[in-house]
Amino acid sequence: MQIDHDHSIGKPATHDEVDDLLRGRTKILGLDVDVLELEYGDVFDIIKRKCPSCSDREPCALDLKRDPSTIVWEAYCPNSDVLNALVAITDVIR
Predict the structure, then answer these.
(1) For residue 82, with 0-12 CB atoms within 10 Å meaning exposed, 13-18 middle and 19 or more buried, which class applies?
(2) pLDDT single digits (tens) 44-71
(3) How far is the C-alpha of 4 from the C-alpha of 62, rounded, in Å?
(4) Which residue, among 87, 85, 73, has the nearest Cα to 26 in the 3D structure?
(5) Is the dihedral of CA 63, 37, 15, 18 positive or negative?
(6) Other residues' Cβ atoms within 10 Å of the Cβ of residue 89
(7) φ, ψ (nearest 5 deg) of residue 84
(8) Domain extents for the chain?
(9) pLDDT higher than 70, residue 81
(10) 35: Cβ–Cβ under 8 A, 6 or more apart, which residues?
(11) Are 24 and 64 a contacting pair, CB within 8 Å?
(12) Helices marked H in 1-94
């Protein structure tokens, strides 16, 4: 899988936009941002608000660059439980 590694830790998105780090993480997890916004809008809005204000943006960006398939991010990401639940839900639906 080819991942775009140009994630900026200095320019988080506004609460209405999808943050670059969040976009990278969802891509790696096989989640489609457009589908999440359409099908799970309220939940995804919460995720979008948490990501830009996270204090672990630098480790997140490094993890996405170095080894995007590692599960280390789950230890520090405030959205990990919800993102993993969305993966499980969308896998069942597919």
Answers:
(1) middle
(2) 999 999 999 999 999 999 999 998 889 9
(3) 12
(4) 87
(5) positive
(6) 14
(7) -65, -35
(8) 20-93
(9) yes
(10) 90
(11) yes
(12) 20-29, 33-39, 41-50, 57-66, 73-76, 80-93
Which structure tokens are listed for 73? 């991010």
- At 24 the pLDDT is 94
d(C-alpha 43, C-alpha 24), whole Å: 18
Residue 88's CB: how many other CB atoms inside 10 A?
Answer: 10
Compute, in degrees rounded to 10, the torsion defined by CA atoms 17, 70, 40, 44. -30
Ramachandran category for residue 12: left, alpha or beta (phi over 0 → left; psi -120 to 50 → alpha): beta
80: left (phi over 0), alpha (psi -120 to 50) or beta: alpha
Q: Which DSSP letter does residue 17 get?
A: S
